[in-house]
Amino acid sequence: MQKVISLFILLFSFSSFGQEIFDYEFDDNVTIQVVEDAEEGEIPGGKYVKGTYKNEVIVFSSSDKGKDKLANTDEAGLLKFFQGVKDGAVKSSKGKLLNEEIITLHDIKALKFSFTFDVNGKKNIVENYVFVYKNLAYTLQFMDTEKGFDKLTDFRTKIVNSILLK
Question: Considering only CA atoms, which of 130, 163, 157 is closest in space to residue 26?
Fold first, then answer.
């Protein structure tokens, strides 16, 4: 009987440590769901919010670099911008591109791309979403080990779908 009670307490304790996700007003333009332990900070020309869910690292950031160029860009310029972001991310990580596609995210064009790279001999996958809204560039990144990456597909979909543009 004591083992049953101990097991019940242990299971209850594990469920109590489940991470909550909540709506977070990132800036005047965007609301997104983040994990409760998320930290926020500033980067040159922008800001970020970063959290961890299980082993997955999630980072949402904004940047006003090139704000003037983004204000006057057409579709070809937007695609060139996306190409530069993708190439820079893959090259700087010494990674290998897995896939890329232009998607529609709340009626605006966005680039979705994934790549692999090694960290301490372990292969990691990074899935990125890049979009421009009100002349700011936004990036949402999910990173996990290659082994664990497919386990959180539904979680990533929930976060992407939580993006609310104002």
Answer: 163
- C-alpha 34/C-alpha 50 separation (Å) is 8
- Mean pLDDT of all residues in 149-162: 93
Q: Identify the bridge partners of residue 50 per DSSP, sorted by sequence position.
A: 39, 59
Tokens of 45: 């020309």
pLDDT tens digits for range 49-95: 999 999 899 999 999 876 666 666 788 888 998 999 999 999 999 99
User: Which phi and psi (to 5°) does residue 132 adopt?
Assistant: -115, 130
Classify residue 28 by its DSSP letter. S
Residue 149's CB: how many other CB atoms inside 10 A? 21
Report residue 75: phi and psi, to 5°.
-60, -40
The C-alpha atoms of residue 82 and residue 61 are separated, in whole angstroms, by: 15
What pLDDT, on the 0 to 100 scale, is given for residue 148? 87
Q: What is the pLDDT of residue 119?
A: 86
Q: In the beta sheet, which residues pair with residue 117?
A: 124
d(CA 132, CA 1): 59
